[in-house]
Amino acid sequence: MPGGAERILRRRIGSVKNTKKITRAMELIAATRVARAQQRARAARPYAEQLTGVIENLAAGGADVSHPLLREVENVQNVAFVICAGDRGLAGAYNSSVIRSAEREIQALRNEGGDYRIIAIGKKVADYFTFRGFDIDTTYDGFTDNPSYENAREIARRVRQLFDNGEVDQVELVFTEFVSLGTQRPVVRRFLPLTSAKTIADAGGGDAEALAGFSFEPSPEGVLEDLLPRYVEARLFAALLDSAASEHANRQRAMKAATDNAEELIIKLSREMNRARQESITTEIMEIVSGAESLNEDEAIIADAFDFESLTN
Amino acid sequence: MSFTIEFVSPEAVLYSGEGTQVIARTRGGGEIAFLAGHEPFIGSLEPSEVRVTEEAGVVRSFAVRSGFVSVTGASVTVLSDQAVPSEDINADEARADLAQAQEELRSNEHDPYALQNQRWAQLRVDLSATA
Asked: Is residue A163 a part of any domain in this protein?
């Protein structure tokens, strides 16, 4: 039927155009959110640096004592995984790559006969592991695209509880590191036990002018006791912020690709539609022409049959 | 004599600049005032008010949940995981938090977390009343 194909194509182009509008909007939103997440990560840095600086000074002051968070177990049996991804999809491979690296670690642990605990941050993580029949210790969600320090504190509290009670011997943190706007990669980092204050200090690279001869209030041990939990929270907060920035960057990229694809599809479909329209026009003209021609022929036949000339004579 | 003061939290830098005095309350040590040339010092803070005197003499007040004060040479750094300028305290929120903390303490009166919550909420209620 002429015109039918054209109508169908026109409708498809319309729907692709709508999709493009949506993906374009999502791309722009993600772009502003990346900028904000990066800004927040920058805002958190002075605190983390100063905290490391204090640990450096503590280490220089000779405070390196035993603390529950420093407890190392030789034969690691139970490991908790803090897995940090997103609540929503449409972010390319963001969620699945974090989840996959976490699952690999868990499988490796199980093969060695160890037991796992999962602390899921983000709805996608909880959904995936529940669906696969894993046990989930705790789920936190609803804030992954804009985490606050309070969220980090809450999660850190649960993690420390597991560790302090001896339910787990080690805690691994799985999240996406925001290297740059173009590069984000899933990483697995040792979270607990903390290495000694000295190692933290060495790795920290804060202001290196650590002075001996500090006085402490209440005592070096007392300060360290308050400090290490804050350090744990700050590290978790940094991981949450990195993950949020990565999620937005991934979403921006995925939505840009979707917008580009929609554009390409629109061009392709428009060409097809134009061809279909041209075809139907050509067919119509052909029909008219052949109709006219056959009409001419008919006239000739009629004329022959009636032989007007003889009649008029 | 003035020195450099940095007051940072994970969410923001609350104060950064020159000042003449910092007053903080450390765990076990009571209230300490830091002036220029104080000996190197690291202290753990209680839920308390921290007062920073700017070079021009203006006193800025902050409510601090917990944190540290670190004095090195010519600068004083206050680190707090949760702090808010006293004038920005939401009094209603603070009262609600206080009620909630007291409720939690009724069921478990030695929960250190609830105790700290209570002190933090009480501090904000007090400071919002004076501000």
From this structure: yes
CB contact under 8 A, B39 and A230: no
> Nearest chain B Cα to A217, which residue?
B43
Residue ranges of the domains in chain B? 3-86, 90-130
Whose structure tokens read 């991981």?
Answer: A239
Cβ distance A57 to B70 less than 8 Å, yes or no, reads: yes
Residue A297 pLDDT > 60:
yes
Cβ separation B44–A227 shorter than 8 A: yes
Instruction: Taking residues A211-219, report their average pLDDT.
Output: 75
What CA–CA distance (Å, rounded) separates B7 from B28? 21
CB contact under 8 A, B26 and A217: yes
One-letter amino acid for residue A86 of the chain: G
A296 within a domain of the structure (yes/no): no
Please tell me whether the peptide bond between A186 and the residue prior to it is cis, using omega within 30 degrees of 0: no
For the stretch A83-135, pLDDT in tens is: 999 999 889 899 999 999 999 999 999 999 899 999 999 999 999 999 999 99
Phi, psi of A186 (to 5 degrees): -70, 135
* Domain, as residue range, for A206: 29-255
Asked if A218 and B10 come within 8 Å (Cβ–Cβ), the reply is no
**Interface check B116 vs A, CB under 8 A:** no
- Per-residue pLDDT, A62: 62
Question: A147 CB near a chain B CB, below 8 Å?
Answer: no
Domain B3-86, CATH 3.40.50.300 — does that match? no
Q: pLDDT by residue (tens digit) across A28-56? A: 999 999 999 999 998 898 898 888 888 87
- Give pLDDT tens digits for B4-20: 999 999 988 899 999 99
Chain A residues with CB inside 8 Å of B79's CB? Answer: 47, 50-51, 54, 230
Q: Is residue A2 part of a domain?
A: no
Q: Kindly list the residues from chain A whose CB atom is less than 8 angstroms away from the CB atom of residue B41.
A: 214-217
| Cα dihedral A47, A48, A50, A52 in deg (nearest 10) | 160
Task: Check which CATH number belongs to the domain holding A86 and give it.
Answer: 3.40.1380.10
Interchain contact B82–A (C-beta under 8 A): yes
ipTM computed for the complex? 0.84
Global confidence as pTM = 0.84
Name the E strands within chain A. 78-84, 115-121, 138-140, 170-178, 184-192, 215-217
